Prior knowledge:
This protein is an alpha+beta fold.
Amino acid sequence: MLLTSFGLADGAVAAERTKALSPTEALAAFQLGEPGLRIELVVAEPLVVDPVAFAFDESRRLYVVEDRGYPDPIDKPGTTEGAIVLA
Length: 87
């Protein structure tokens, strides 16, 4: 999922900050500091797994780089399971 749990409301307990959020929960957890800004969910699992980078091109297409061995490639030594996903 490209959204993260940053920006939880003040007073959220530590356990709430570290638990995995659904895409809808993550989207609701963001706080935008400027009027007129908006945030949208553009891609989530299972379409993208373990994203490590993303970019938009001039036609607004989203490219996501996956590293399915990230952050612990020791689980499968000698394997590379990265992918580029067009979303």
